[in-house]
Amino acid sequence: MKKVLVLGGSRYFGRGVVERLRDAGLDVTVLNRGSSPAPTGVAHLIADRDDEAGLKAVLGSRSFDVVLDQVCYTPVQAGIARRVIRANRYVMTSTIDVYDQLRADTPMGESLVSRSPVDVRLPWHDADFLEAHYGEGKRQAEAIFADGDVEFASVRVAHVLGGDDFTGRLRHYVERLDAGDVVEIHAEPRPSTFIHADEIADFLAWATHADFAGPVNAGSHGELSALDLAAAVTAEPRFKIVERDASPFSFDRYAVLDTSRATDLGFSFSTTTDWLGEAIENLRKA
Questions:
Q1: What is the topology classification, in CATH, of domain 3-285?
Q2: pLDDT tens for the chain, residues 1 to 286
Q3: Distance between CA 60 and CA 136 in Å, rounded?
Q4: How distant, in Å, are the alpha carbons of 110, 112, 177, 183, 232 from that of 235?
Q5: Pairing of strands 64-69, 194-196
Q6: What are the residue boundaries of the structural domains of the chain, listed by start?
């Protein structure tokens, strides 16, 4: 039986991944800080991944066939994991934001991101710094793992909608537009790639079973802009043009993922029109 360690996995689509791996018959261990219990039927280890000595003590002599790391945000965290965790394959949940420095007019393929220089001396422990450098933190974390001896894959996840979304970003559109308020957008909002929480859980479970290496983009077909999201909420949305502090998902640059590598590897994505309406209605019912 394949042994899988999941770092994180306590909420949102991460919990769904753990449940899928468990239901597929894998020997699953969840490691987190203990803020919430692991799903039934999986082992649970409690540790702070930022505490290298503590993490090493909790893991002991354990080794795993695959690690799925859903909560690696910095090169410091990646370095600790690489030194401490014993595994044959490492899969990291990355983000569409690794492309945040690109200016493109066509869908962005994985090769467009160069391996980022690593600087562990930056204040990655500072929450404000990390939030402002989210994409860079993920790029540098990818670089740390890619330089290791263990087979490594990074899943660059599109913007996630649906499910038990704690971010409130789609809810922002639903609540404002249903109340007759305006949505603040850029003068020419550009499209990006999205994926449903259930689908990214499916994808990450699939990626854990698979044997590919390197980065792979994950997102549903059918790009969406802020205008498209608003139109899915109401037939006559109202907007206000702003230069800064626009609504979530109002982008001033084209940010669409090329998902052809994932398709070539054997995963079939849905289309945003398959699930967006239901995601909006579920928010109204919540």
A1: Rossmann fold (3.40.50)
A2: 799 999 997 778 889 999 999 999 999 999 999 888 888 999 999 999 999 999 999 999 999 999 999 999 999 999 999 999 999 999 999 999 999 999 999 999 999 998 889 999 999 999 999 999 999 999 999 999 999 999 999 999 999 999 888 889 999 999 999 999 999 999 999 999 999 999 999 999 999 999 999 999 999 999 999 999 999 999 999 999 999 899 999 999 999 999 999 999 999 999 999 999 999 999 999 8
A3: 31
A4: 36, 37, 10, 14, 7
A5: unpaired
A6: 3-285
d(CA 102, CA 270): 26
Distance (Å, whole) CA 92 – CA 152: 8
Residue written as token pair 């019912």:
285
Q: Which DSSP symbol is given to 175?
A: H
Q: Which of 103, 101, 57 is nearest to 80 (CA)?
A: 57
CA angle 244, 221, 173 (to 5 degrees): 35
159: enclosing H helix or E strand: strand 159-161
Placement of tokens 């894998």 in the chain: 26
Distances (CA, A) of 36 to 9, 30, 33, 44, 142: 10, 11, 8, 10, 27
CA distance 91 to 94: 9
Cα separation of 177 and 174, whole Å? 5
List the end-to-end C-alpha distance of the chain, in Å, as a whole number: 39
* Beta-carbon contacts of residue 274 (< 8 Å; ≥ 6 apart): 220
